[in-house]
Amino acid sequence: MPHLTDDPAYTDLIERALARLDLGAKARLLAGQDLWSLPALPEIGLASLVMSDGPVGVRGSGWTPDDPALTLPSPTALAASWDPELARRAGRILAQEAHRKGVHVLLAPTINLHRSPLGGRHFEAYSEDPLLTARIGTGYVTGVQESGVAATLKHFVANDAETERFTVDNHVDERTLRELYLAPFEEIIAAANPWLTMSAYNAVNGSTMTEHRPLQVGVLRDEWGYDGVVVSDWLAARDTIRAIDGGLDVAMPGPHTVFGPALAAAVREGKVAEKTVDTAVRRILLLAARLGLLADAAPAVPDALRPAPVDGTACAREIATRSFVLLRNERQLLPLDPSRLGSPRALDPAGIGGIALIGHAARHARILGGGSATVFPRSVVSPLDGLRAALPEGTPLTWVRGADLSDGLSPASDGFTLRAVLRDASGTVLGEQPLPDGRIRWMAETLPGGADFDALETVELVGTFVPRTGGPHEFGTRGLGTFRLTVDGATVYDGVHRPTDADPLAAITGPPVPRGAVDLTAGEPVEVSLLASDPKTTYGSLRGVTFGLAHREPIGEDDQLIEEAVAAALAADTAIVVVATTETVESEGFDRAGLRLPGRQDELVARVAAANSRTVVVVNAGAPVEMPWRDDVAAILLTWFPGEQGGAALADVLLGDAEPCGRLPTTWPATLDETPVHQVTPHGGVLRYEEEGFIGYRAWQRHSSAPAYPFGFGLGYTDWQHEHIEADDARTVRVQLRNTGARPGRTVVQLYVGPADPATASGPPRPDRWLAGFAPVAADPGQTTDVEIALPERAFQVWDTASGAWTMIPGRYTVHAAHDAVTPTLSTELHITG
Ligand code: BGC
Q1: Topology of domain 8-299, per CATH?
Q2: Which pLDDT tens digit goes with each residue over 298-352?
Q3: For the chain: N or C, fewer Cβ within 10 A?
């Protein structure tokens, strides 16, 4: 990627544009004009710059299903591929989507670390390891930007949990900050130069990040030479002077921010130097030039040089299969042999053979995590759809729910035909809009029909619902306000919902609240209305309308659901149970309370496994869950949040058309209590990273118990033998390995290094060994293959706080080739000199 800042023609152009802007225009350019964009400045030929989340798809400027997005597997899944080239392809597809939607900046990737499995956005970050995070992030950013779209590294920095997320002050010692939390930012910036970095909500060591001059200017600019734009997380900029002086370039979202007119005023009053504003404006102009939004500036990637279009659907499916982690596969149950699935079941003479597919998520797949990472998929292939399409004609396939995911209210979509009606105080209709999933997310400036926000008095979400099943249907509301909910003429809820939750984005990102049930008859339409009589929400500078209707169909009693599942498992040849977390478990905005699966899913798995020894459990979760039954089932396949093609990918893997190639990017504990680092609750506003750099496998090495599955772990459908390892003085390691199994396959060669003799090793405390390199490889049965992995200098350095510099720790190091963090195979030694 050319470094445009080095190009004098660019510099000239930017200087000339800057010189033509008055203070007011410059200050305006540093502030969002609405939720997602910066203003156009026609006087210098600058077009408006549009941003969008990120990271699994490109949501676009709306927040509703009428603007669907190709939905890829979630970041933990992408990282489980351990394949930066695959991440690069993901980046290219997302850039393709961005171009389609007129988006210039993708607000991704999220490269914070998995410090605790309780972190609500764990699913949205890559790994507990900074090197793996950096490599996947580099691939992703490269793919996005080589296609002419800007990527955004977020959230800078130590934004690793959600509790008190706007105010929490994370106390992290300098060495830990450098070696762990800053490390992925540093490496990705050096390797792929993302054009934006997002400043986080939290504070670090006493200063909120949007005002953190030592990190945003000292480290990012002065040390790393970063030339991109620093944009605030949404609503994270709180103070005009401290933010601009602290190194923040852009305050989002608009239209009311601490920059814009407030910044111009601060300059006029002599409180901010105009040259500080100019520096930030130059960066926006450079970004705009790179994107082709500034007149006369050639974009960094001319249209003709963009990579060829990719088939997004096929790629979403491939990424999913490459991310699935096979955690257990007794007696090689997987892949299933489709030919035996058609025969009657021996165990139960009345049985019908085939597959009993069990679980709420088998039909209602959970394909992505909650919060700002939510996009609206174009269509979803559930496990049921995927298997149905892939199984040979005539193979029995039954689905039963098995367990009620107690908090499972979903957007009102299936069976609903709804529209929103906006009215003023006199009842006159100001605007109308169809609502495919009963969710409203409008900004004040862009109400349907151009309705005037100030005149708006009520919004009614109204229409019909045709139930698929009879019985008690539960209805709920999302968002804040005064609501009246009626179904079939009966009032289900009439009240005010204003929780004291300090999180101003809760109305947008928060889960629905159940309000009551109504008995309905299958197939008989009923009228539904949700009237919001004070629909306007204002959070700081944000003004809009955000609420919605949620619903859950009758599910049946828990005991009965489990008995149905057991009966189905008994009658089938193979039972596949899909267990899952829900939106109230894994989402932005709050941390998890525990790692247990919601509802009675653990009991369901135990009962099904007792009934059928051929039980496969599919874990549909973005982050670790406890699996108390893990030694009692035949197979466990972790599918993460697999994106819109998840069900198709699942069928590919279960039936052997594809191999599950994933390796855990994060340690999977047996229980929360046994997890060495899990604290996410601040005390007195402060969260201390007391464990210093010992998170993830680095912590487990010093811990009394072992995790359920270690970092790096994953089986496949073939076997591998590491046959030879050697290292040279240039820190290049060669590993020879052989596919000793019967089918072509893929694996990941992982290299861990550590002091050869820890007792005499010099330097500060370090883990026993740490990941220093890796390479995904593929080979045919019997084939030998060689990989060459260059170990970075940084693998042998520590941050020396006294000198404020990286220092090489000389000595003898063992380099282990390994299948995972605790299973080394071969080793060799490297002598590192200072
Ligand atoms: C999130 C960011 C996101 C932004 C815009 C914030 O709440 O932390 O990751 O990009 O919203 O949706």
Answers
A1: TIM Barrel (3.20.20)
A2: 999 999 999 999 899 999 999 999 999 999 999 999 999 988 887 655 455 667 7
A3: C
Best CATH choice for the domain 718-832 from the list 2.60.40.10, 3.90.1150.10, 2.40.50.100, 2.30.30.240: 2.60.40.10
Q: Ligand 1 test: best mutation among 107, 153, 230, most atoms within 8 Å of CB?
A: 107
Q: What is the dihedral of CA 235, 236, 242, 246, to 10 degrees?
A: -130
Q: Is 645 in the pocket of ligand 1 (CB under 6 A)?
A: no
Tens of pLDDT, residues 412-471: 888 999 999 999 999 999 999 988 888 888 888 888 888 999 999 999 999 999 998 899
* HEC string for 430-483: EEEEECCCCEEEEEHHHCHHHCCCCCCCEEEEEEEECCCCCEEEEEEEEECEEE
Does 224 score more than 50 pLDDT? yes
Ligand 1 pocket, residue 63 CB under 6 Å: no
Q: Please give the positions annotated as active site.
A: 233
pLDDT of residue 349: 60
pLDDT band at 1 (very low <50, low <70, confident <90, very high): very low
The closest of 57, 80, 55 to 619, measured between CA atoms, is 80
Q: Which two tokens stand for residue 676?
A: 């060495």
> Got the DSSP string for 322-379?
HH-EEEEEGGG-PSP-HHHHTSPPSSSTT---SEEEE-HHHHS---S-BSTT---BS-
Q: Is 614 helix (H, G, I), strand (E, B) or coil?
A: coil
DSSP string, 732-757: EEEEEEEE-SSS-EEEEEEEEEEESS
* CA 200 to ligand 1: nearest atom: 8
Ligand 1 atom nearest to CA at 53:
10
Tell me if 725 sits within 8 A of 751, measured CB to CB.
no
Q: Where in the chain is the domain with CATH 2.60.40.10?
A: 718-832
Task: For 410-552, give the CATH class.
Answer: alpha beta
**Ligand 1 atom 12: residue of nearest CA:** 372
> Model pTM greater than 0.85?
yes
Q: How many CA atoms lie within 13 A of 414 on its CB side?
A: 12
CATH no., domain 315-404+556-662? 3.40.50.1700
* Per-residue pLDDT at 406 exceeds 70: no
Q: Write the pLDDT tens digit of every residue in 64-121.
A: 777 899 999 999 999 999 999 999 999 999 999 999 999 999 999 999 999 999 999 9
Domain with CATH 3.90.182.10 in the chain: 410-552
- Of ligand 1's atoms, which has the minimum distance to the CA of residue 107? 10
Lowest-confidence region among 271-280, 306-315, 403-412, 548-557: 403-412
What value, to the nearest 5°, has the Cα angle with vertex 744 and ends 742 and 750?
Answer: 105
pLDDT score of 710 = 98
> Residue 748 class from Cβ within 10 Å (0-12 exposed, 13-18 middle, 19+ buried)?
buried
Tell the burial category of 532 from Cβ atoms under 10 Å away from its Cβ (0-12, 13-18, 19+). buried
Query: Which ranges in the chain are annotated with CATH 3.40.50.1700?
Result: 315-404+556-662
640 CA from centroid of ligand 1 (Å): 21
Of the candidates 63, 48, 62, 30, the one whose C-alpha atom is nearest the C-alpha of residue 104 is 48
Give the type of residue at 287. Answer: L
